[in-house]
Amino acid sequence: xxxxxxxxxxxxxxxxxxxxxxxxxxVVLGKSGNQSDIKNSPYExxxxxxxxxxxxxxxxxxxxxxxxxxxxxxVVFMYPWAVVFxxxxxxxxxxxxxxxxxxxxxxxxxxxxxxxxxxxxxx
Amino acid sequence: xxxxxxxxxxxxxxxSIGLFGVMFRRNIIVIFMCLEMMLNAANLSLVAxxxxxxxxxxxxxxxxxxxxxxxxxxxxxVAVGLAIIIAMFRSRRTVDVDEISSMKG
Amino acid sequence: xxxxxLEIAVVVLGLVLLxxxxxxxxxxxxxxxxxxxxxxxxxxxLLLTVKSHCGCDSPMWQFYDDSSLSLFFKGLALLCTAFVLxxxxxxxxxxxxxxxxxxxxxxxxxxxxxxxxxxxGLMWMASAIDxxxxxxxxxxxxxxxxxxxxxxxxxxxxxxxGVKYLILGALSTGILVYGLSWLFGATGQTGLDAIxxxxxxxxxxxxxxxxxxxxIALCFKIAAVPFHFWVPDVYQGAPTxxxxxxxxxxxxxxxxxxxxxxxxxxxxxxxxxxxxxxLVAVACATLILGNLAAxxxxxxxxxLAYSSISHxxxxxxxxxxxxxxxxxxSTRIIAFYLSAYLCMTLLxxxxxxxxxxxxxxxxLKAFDGLHRRNPFLGFxxxxxxxxxxxxxxxxxxxxxxxVFIAAAGAQQWLAIGIAVAGAAAGFYYYFKVIRHVYWNxxxxxxxxxxxSPVAKSLLIILIAATLVLGVYPQxxxxxx
Lengths: 123, 105, 480
Fold this sequence. Notes:
The complex is a heterotrimer of chains A (123), B (105) and C (480). Chain B is mainly alpha-helical and 105 residues long. Chain B is built from three helices and two strands, in the order ααββα.
């Protein structure tokens, strides 16, 4: 049964081996020979590198990411609700209304975020 | 055949890795990731317990319901937590827990 | 009317307040506080009309308990929230200073909307009888508190307290969930009633493991020993009304959850002795640490933090006594102790907020000569300190007295010895506060301290409650 995973194992060995050998070779071969600042700078297709290696992102990215995670994760409740109670939703209206009130709470949160300017990219 | 014990060992390992990370790492972001790992360890054991606790051939879905709630609560916790950590970083320029100790006594 | 309408009402109130907050101009934020207060008061009046065990049929009753005990703790949560909102209105000038937005005026509106949502969580906690609802309501309050503790984002102390509370709170959540998963694994049930019937036949090892994990996690909520180290820092850094809320609301609801979750374990003959031994050990450690660490404190907020730890020790001792007979069962003792604790702790925090507003300091030195600068405030401090120490004729004395009765009934002599020593140490450090108020002279040029009408009525209510409960405990015990 484990033999099914043999290709995965081979793939992993090849991948790590290739990467490791490249790194080792560049260290071994690169140390010899004359060095200069230009040679040690990162290779950017011949362009001179500008700015720092890690640009600072605006906090708006995190804000939108956080809001996305929050609203996105609520589907976790809606999906099983829709699948499991597919027929019961029609006969038992309380199921419909309870999910609608849940969506209403999300709507309040959305309005709040909108009004507070959390989704405003300009300014 | 994977047994309940295998899942419990995996979840126990995840939980211990998370716990040790929380205790010994100093970067708040890493600590936060370790905390998430602890929650997911609990999720794994809940799903395993629920899968192996069958009644009439069906798993006990109560435990899996709890997992849904844990996932959403964890997302809310991360959102609030990251906001606080960003506010902290803006005022102190650090994410090192050893440096946030102005209160003593 | 089924009791869960109350939570729905409180949640709707909180959401409406949030929307109103977002759509009103900044100069009208004070009104949100008053609206929240009015809404909470109205819900409290509604609570008085709710009868337990309403016959209405609903799938809710699997998750939701409406016994008189639950209703009592709901009342406690609502009262605590109302007092905290009043304290918040009093604290507004300090809050405005530290919560300024980058581009404009202060952001204080959410400070009154979030306690309402936290209150809904506390009320749910009081009724939760399924591990799913227990977990959810606990998290609703905890996540709300993360924001509240870090609310003053122009203040480094508040942010630090927020980060500490966040990390330790999330850690306790992780441990709690893992414990709950083992409880589910050991019994195969999520409802507490079903767990109670399934636990005697469960394997001993997983059950004890679950017990230990759940106890450790709940110790975070109630500020007891393995998880107490966040308490002093967070209490000191958080905005003072939030500190009061944490120390009273969070602890009260946490104890009811602890009672509910511990009860099935204590009912099983083979687990009982081990579980009680663990509980007594935790209680003793909490009593020793809380009282010893409180002695050298010179900051009133930190003093109250350690006092909160030591009171958690007394409460745990009552829980460990597991008394079910007679008028004074463990549950009723804890309910009475928590009501007394609510009155005296909120009184102490109210005094602290008023003093902080005019002197800008939380140190005990700021209390020097208080009885000359404002005799009424001095008297309020006297009552709070006396009751926290446990002087007869105050509510704090009866609370401790009941705990001793229960512990003596359970023959926990060692724990009683430690508790007596702790109470004696308590007399020392609480009387240090009284000494500052009545014996020390005020610094040169110290002005009289003004008390606003709102604060004055709050102080009068709390002083009266502390004294009345001290002579007439039936007022609380009769409700259960």
